[in-house]
């Protein structure tokens, strides 16, 4: 589920090269379910035409303060009424200066002055313009006025220089907007999580692993961070970027994962084990590549420690959430794992539903019973798991609040 679904957003586009990225941003916002009205400054229109934004947003584009398409000719007021937020991306040094001073020479700045919704700006400019005391002063003033500044990013700029001033990529802006709108049901919570597979080396080039992609764990880490939690993610080897705002440490083996978890778990409020930790590892790891021979080769495996069970048994340990990946008898096996490890909550999934792909279908088990969630993209499933977790934790801290169940 996207927190941008059904949101009314005004996207202000001012005159910077990054305006071309705003076209992609408009597309991604619409894809996430937002209704987007684009307000293009005169300089912005020199970089990307109104027709592009109209096609991508599916809505008329606004450029002129004196536009009489609104029934009462009050575009500067009507456009922001009913808006959930105005986002200016790219925001030039010039528009930031005008906003900081309350100047309103055109439609976009007038709209910002006459708004009754949050304003977010994504600066985009040459690094020296960004570092200029006037710009930094304006950015500080905007922050003090309650404007949310997203970025800027560091990197190569259109002029060829390298430094701070690039507009954040559309994907990053989208993620920040999602975070902005997500209900902060886990605010003040510190969560340690595991995700991905582990890799148990046999020799320097071979090992035992599994086909966990990390997608479920990373989606859950992102959803927890968006819900306001501080997230420490201990990740096995995956090809995924860290979710925004999540502190990630990468490990290979189950033993490394255990050590990284135990280092971080003291004082944590919640521990969530999404990782598909190898139950066994080779008893020894060959120092050099094992040479091929015509003979059969036997590998001796020894059990790995169970990280989740160990954390769940800690005195004054965190609220523990396990995952159970089964290929059959989900209810029975998941319930058995929950009982064996003493967990208040476990999320069960069939490997054929959840392993590797972009979607999952899970059932949550807790003291109140069995709560199936509908099949869906892993980020939507993750948001629903977060809501359930927040309700359970809330019920623990305020016993009068009943925990809503679905069956
Ligand atoms: O990564 P994806 O491709 O998105 O796939 C997601 C997933 C299927 C891997 C995920 O949804 C999932 O089910 N993760 C748990 C997989 C698993 O190893 O389940 P298990 O039933 O073997 O283990 C039960 C619980 O104990 C898990 O929380 C596991 O993290 C934990 N465990 C297991 C063994 C071990 N040595 N240490 C542990 O902490």
Descriptive keywords:
8-stranded mixed beta sheet, Rossmann fold, 5-stranded parallel beta sheet, alpha/beta, elongated, binds ligand PMT, 15 helices, disordered C terminus
Could you please describe the fold and organization of this structure?
It is a single chain. The protein is built from 15 helices and 21 strands. The protein is α/β, with parallel strands linked by helices. The chain has two domains: 8-181, Flavin prenyltransferase-like (Rossmann fold, 3-Layer(aba) Sandwich), CATH 3.40.50.1950; 190-397, 3-Layer(aba) Sandwich (Rossmann fold), CATH 3.40.50.10300. The strands form six sheets. Strands 12-11-8-13-16-17-19-20 form an eight-stranded mixed sheet, sandwiched between helices. A five-stranded parallel sheet has the order 2-1-3-4-5, with helices on both faces. Helix 13 links the parallel strand 16 and strand 17 (345-350). Helix 1 (19-31) packs parallel to helix 3, helix 5 packs across helix 8 and helix 10 (215-226) packs across helix 15 (378-397). The longest helix is centred in the C-terminal third of the chain and has 20 residues, at 378-397. Residues 401-407 have low confidence and may be disordered. Bound molecules: ligand PMT. Ligand PMT is lined by residues 194, 212-217, 254, 273-277, 279, 304, 306-308, 322-325, 337, 349, 354-356.
